[in-house]
Design brief:
Residues 202-340 form the Helicase ATP-binding domain. With 768 residues, this protein is α/β, with parallel strands linked by helices. Helices cover 51% and strands 11% of the residues.
């Protein structure tokens, strides 16, 4: 006779404890609403997983009969509205669409339950783009909340209601499983081409699908290559692509970009050695010049793309350019030397399009402005509650790390026994719903607290006082554009400055005619400030200005900074200026805030290097922030020592070896030499200067994540030098296996995204 599990015995003895009323009274009502919403969300996701997968390992806290989960769903919808749904209107307006929201959420979970988290996000973005809708809302919320959670769905739902696209979005999402599966797998260009990229594509097409595109660094060469591949596949229904480059790091980057930009199914942290494939009809392979030159005939393809093509002109590797193909594209920032040009012309075709750094700067594609970074604190309205939540999280995390090490080992597949970051805890908690082990009560409480805290941060902006002072200082002398977090912050800044400077504001809460009038007035003024929430993401045509001030979320994308370059007007005597605020909470939780803060600083340094712009700290002497920054760096180093990698939201998984490998040979050697002569801690400014020296003061340096090297080394030049001396990977030069010209189809590689959904099998196996 089968033995009953503890939860089953509990149900038979006390069925009243498995009702929604009991769950609400005992678990939800004692907590702050946002924390309770986080726990209710987790329980609903458990219920849906149990229903869809029919898996007896799921332990439900409510009786799945008698409508208890329907009551919980209604409670979640109401709570989500009170927290983030105010844009729909007053409570009466929400009541009219509350049922519609609940249906939308349930149907969304139903439609997406088969897919891992990364694929869910890509699928939603494909649908958004099909409706000519910017997918920013999906990217922004997916960083913090699970797809299908109430907050994520409410944010998406309200945006769809606002734009009048709810019905169209629902029709595309709520289709048959087979239709949705085809859409999820089908590659699609997930970003719009810029004008110069479109011109480059057209020039290459006019040349018969061959030729070289000379485009300055950071102007989107990779995007043009991927767009060409996607267009050819759309025309012919079948396409094989081979991407050649001189370094493995560059090929890994190409593979990541293909997954991100085209929505291919694949692990973005995977090696270039794993091709990407859509049902064998659209295949992208990646290989080094050093391997292909030995037997180019074995690599026949339809479209050949050669990146950093000038490397292929050397005597040793030019034979790699003889790969049999129908179309060929060479990409390079510049091709110099007559002999080199002749070799490339002969194998790939002449240069059909040139886009210089000067042109890129003139068009604002590569901005030419001085970037000032302001480090400040978040402006959190619920400050007392936020402080209490932060302290409670610290205590609970310490308790779990001290008392639940064995349980952590089991759920992590014996990878670690303590949590160095709350991001790891959240991912493991999601995976716990696939476990036979009942999650301790302390874990449930911690989920609720993290949920509540992240939501407060998500809705917060940097401290306004410094931004307002800056606006008042500059608004009577220059034309300024200010990016705010939301409409409420926009209005708050407007009220604070309108009596001191000529002030204008635009947002979606104003009538379209008023927006046009305000923009026209700002266009015609000589000084003043225009304030708007995320207006560039909404497609508003912004007049020129001389100063940009960003007080929106610090996780601003590269695209926004590049578009700022189009807005900021260059004058003969002075560069324009962009002020960027990077904020952190004063009530700091090292296991959470360290990683997001380091992400933000690493991202802004990457921007400065990639675009070749000057970067300065506006106020480097804030002792409180300096101390929190030291804590952040030590938390990151501690995490790295325990994991030998760093898992981040913005950069993916950071492996120091991969960063070292991405540094160009000459620059790598020069950097080692420069560090050998140094002593004392290296500041961010000194690190930027060293990198630019190592790269021969090039205008742009297209290498990501270099600041992480500085942090992992503890800013010590000799430790940093030792990391670099780990050496770059030796490129494989053994002869490739012979492969016939009619290459067999390549199946989709196994997907292993770094999400809880993608680790289900691993967790289950570990628990068994």
């Amino acid at each position: 006779m089968k033995r009953l599990r503890p939860d089953e015995l509990e149900y038979f003895n006390h069925p009243d404890r498995f009702t929604f009323g009991y769950f609400r009274a005992e678990t939800l009502d004692p907590l702050p609403e946002a924390a309770a919403l986080g726990i209710a969300d987790e329980e609903l996701l458990n219920y849906y997983d149990n229903r869809y997968h029919n898996d007896a390992r799921f332990v439900l806290r409510l009786d799945p009969n008698d409508g208890h989960y329907a009551d919980l769903e209604a409670w979640v919808a109401d709570a989500a509205y009170r927290i983030v749904g105010e844009r729909i209107g007053d409570s009466e307006a929400f009541r009219k669409v509350a049922k519609e929201f609940t249906v939308f959420r349930i149907d969304s979970v139903n439609a997406l339950h088969l897919y891992p988290e990364v694929q869910k996000i890509q699928l939603l973005k494909k649908i958004a783009l099909d409706l000519r809708m910017q997918p920013a809302v999906i990217d922004e919320n997916a960083c913090l909340f699970s797809v299908g959670s109430s907050i994520f769905t409410m944010e998406l739902f309200t945006r769809l209601v606002e734009s009048g696209r709810l019905e169209g979005f629902a029709k595309r999402l709520f289709r048959t499983d087979a239709e949705l599966a085809r859409l999820s797998r089908r590659p699609m260009l997930l970003y719009s081409l810029w004008d110069h990229q479109t011109v480059a594509m057209e020039a290459w097409q006019r040349s018969g699908g061959k030729g070289i595109l000379e485009m300055a660094t950071a102007t989107g060469k990779t995007m043009v290559g991927l767009a060409a591949a996607e267009k050819l596949f759309g025309l012919y229904g079948s396409l094989r692509v081979l991407v050649l480059a001189h370094s493995r790091a560059l090929l890994d980057q190409w593979r990541r970009e293909a997954i991100d930009k085209l929505g291919f199914v694949g692990d973005s942290n995977g090696s270039y050695k794993h091709p990407l494939s859509y049902d064998g009809k659209f295949v992208i392979e990646f290989e080094t010049l050093q391997k292909v030159y030995r037997n180019p005939g074995a690599y026949a393809t339809d479209l050949l793309i050669v990146d950093e093509v000038h490397h292929g002109a050397g005597l040793q590797f030019r034979k790699a350019l003889e790969v049999p193909c129908r179309w060929k594209m060479g990409l390079s920032a510049t091709v110099e030397g007559a002999e080199r040009g002749q070799v490339l012309d002969r194998h790939l075709g002449r240069t059909v399009y040139t886009f210089t750094l000067k042109e890129a700067r003139e068009k604002g594609v590569v901005p030419d402005f001085n970037l000032y970074v302001h480090k400040t604190f978040l402006d959190i309205a619920e400050d007392v509650e936020f402080r209490e939540i932060s302290e409670h999280i610290k205590r609970l995390l310490n308790y779990i790390n001290a008392n639940h090490q064995r349980f952590i080992q089991i759920l992590s597949g014996y990878k670690f026994s303590r949590f160095e970051s709350l991001g790891d805890f959240v991912k493991l908690m999601r995976g716990s719903r696939y476990s036979e082990n009942e999650v301790p009560e302390e874990w449930q409480k911690l989920v609720g607290l993290i949920y509540k805290r992240r939501l407060i941060i998500h809705r917060s902006s940097p401290k306004m006082e410094r931004a307002v002072d800056l606006i008042k200082q500059l608004g009577n002398q220059k034309k300024c554009v200010v990016f705010s977090m939301d409409i409420a912050t926009c209005e708050r800044i407007y009220r604070a400055v309108k009596d001191s400077v000529p002030a204008y504001r635009v947002h979606s809460g104003l009538h379209p005619d008023d927006v046009k009038r305000v923009l026209a007035d700002f266009r015609n003024c000589t000084t003043g400030v225009l304030i708007a929430p995320k207006m560039l993401d909404e497609g508003i045509d912004v007049p020129d200005a001389e100063i940009g001030i960003n007080v929106a979320s610090a996780r601003t994308k590269l695209q926004l900074v590049q578009r700022m370059g189009r807005i900021l007007r260059n004058r003969p005597d002075k560069k324009p200026v962009f002020h960027h605020f990077v904020a952190l909470p004063r009530n700091f939780v090292a296991a959470e805030d360290s990683f997001s803060y380091m992400n933000d600083l690493a991202w802004i340094q990457d921007i400065a290097l990639k675009l070749g712009i000057a970067l300065e700290l506006y106020d480097p002497e804030n002792s409180e922030i300096v101390e929190l920054e030291k804590q952040s760096e030590e938390a990151v180093r501690s995490y790295y020592r325990a994991r030998d990698c760093i898992v981040t939201d913005d950069f993916g998984t950071i492996h120091i070896k991969k960063i070292v490998d991405s540094i160009r040979g000459e620059a790598h050697e020069e950097l080692i030499a420069l560090l050998g002569a140094r002593s004392g801690a290296i500041t961010d400014e000194q690190w930027l200067h060293l990198l630019r020296q190592a790269y021969g003061n090039e205008s742009t340096i297209n290498v990501s994540s270099l600041r992480w090297l500085l942090i992992i080394s503890g800013r010590d030049p000799q430790t940093l030098r030792s990391l670099l001396l780990m050496g770059k990977q030796d490129v494989q030069t053994s002869p490739p296996p012979t492969r016939p010209l009619d290459m067999p189809k390549i199946g989709i590689p196994e997907q292993t995204p770094d999400t809880a959904d993608g680790r289900v099998a691993e967790l289950v196996a570990a628990l068994k």
